[in-house]
Design a protein that fits this description.
Number of domains: 2
Largest sheet: 6 strands, mixed
Number of helices: 12
Bound molecules: octanoyl-coenzyme A
Pfam family, one: ECH_1
Protein name: Enoyl-CoA hydratase PaaF
Distance between the termini: 25 Å
Shape: globular
GO molecular function: hydro-lyase activity
Mean pLDDT: 97
Low-confidence stretches: none
CATH topology of the largest domain: 2-enoyl-CoA Hydratase, Chain A, domain 1
Strand order of the largest sheet: 1-2-3-5-7-10
Structural class: alpha/beta
Family: Belongs to the enoyl-CoA hydratase/isomerase family.
Order of helices and strands: EEHEEHHHEEHEEHHEHEHHHH
CATH class of the largest domain: Alpha Beta
CATH architecture of the largest domain: Alpha-Beta Complex
Number of strands: 10
Keywords: Lyase
Helix content: 40-55%
Length: about 260
């Protein structure tokens, strides 16, 4: 994989780990870093040797938001022409399971990045929030939309208006976070979950993800029609034959991703 300036990447046991690495500024997301993150995730999404992608931070932060120094002097026309959110839109097109392992601050754009993943495992010490209101702006990479769809309008407005940070425990109670673990076990527990997913038939995971994401946007009837087509499609896979044969023969299945 290409050499990156602001992230570090590795693959273990068919699990790709992308680590945000700009610890001096709490992994503040400058534009190059976002480009690097998106291109690494897309490369792993196309890589047959990878089944699950883990995104994590380093030092005291997952990411403390967009790089304020970089954007402080921006104007609307510059932002329109930069069209930087086109890159963020590509995160929603990643097909493989993505797990955010949130070690510390996940604020602003950093929270949006975690919310762009499918599952979130958080260290007990992690803190989430949208502090944009405190610096005269608001979320721009999906925060108002994703948070509202997850926790509802009333609670979302309170967090977005006050800009206060929520603990991992609060985020878990709100249904934002899947698991809260001791900080020293964060990566181990995330990898355990990733390995569990990596053992499942990848095409099932892929089409389940697609169908669940449709549930967020589609009315129930249309969503169910979509689900049905994906269900039918899985009967074209070897993994369906293997999974059902293994059940009948009372043995463990071996899934190939075909
Ligand atoms: N941008 C640039 N630098 C940052 C950022 C940031 N977002 N966050 C922290 N840093 C830097 C600090 O300036 C400091 O640098 P230096 O050592 O050179 O002074 C270093 O990181 C360490 O930070 P602190 O000394 O402030 O550490 P504390 O433990 O005292 O505080 C906090 C930690 C509470 C996280 C604090 O740093 C903070 O409030 N940071 C800013 C959080 C914030 O407002 N985030 C939202 C930014 S706006 C945004 O994300 C909009 C999203 C829009 C789309 C996304 C596009 C990428």
């Amino acid at each position: 994989m290409t050499k990156f300036a602001y992230i570090r990447t590795r693959v273990e046991d068919e699990i790709a780990v992308v680590e945000l690495y700009r610890p001096d500024v709490l992994n503040a997301l400058n534009r190059q870093m976002v480009t690097e993150i998106v291109s690494a995730l897309e490369a792993y999404d196309r890589n047959d040797g990878v089944r699950v992608i883990v995104l994590t931070g380093s030092g005291r932060a997952f990411a403390a938001g967009a790089d304020i120094d970089e954007m402080a002097g921006d104007d609307p026309i510059k932002l329109e022409l930069l069209n930087q959110f086109a890159e963020w839109d590509r995160l929603a097109l990643i097909k493989k399971p993505m797990i955010a392992a949130v070690n510390g601050f996940a604020l602003g754009g950093g929270f949006e990045l975690a919310l762009s993943c499918d599952l979130i495992v958080a260290a007990e010490t992690a803190e989430f929030g949208f502090p944009e209101v405190n610096i005269g702006v608001m979320p721009g990479a999906g925060g108002t939309q994703r948070l509202t769809k997850l926790i509802g309008k009333t609670k979302a407005l309170e967090w977005l208006w006050t800009g206060e940070r929520m603990s991992a425990k609060e985020a878990h109670a709100l249904g934002i976070v899947n698991r809260v673990v001791a900080p020293e076990l964060l990566l181990e527990e995330t990898m355990r979950l990733a390995r569990k997913l990596a053992a499942k038939p990848p095409l099932s995971l892929r089409l389940i993800k697609e169908a669940v994401n449709k549930a967020v946007d589609y009315p129930l009837y249309e969503g169910m029609q979509f689900e049905r087509k994906n269900f039918y499609l899985l009967f074209a896979t070897e993994d369906q034959k293997e999974g059902m044969a293994a059940f009948i023969e009372k043995r463990e299945p071996r899934f190939q991703g075909r």
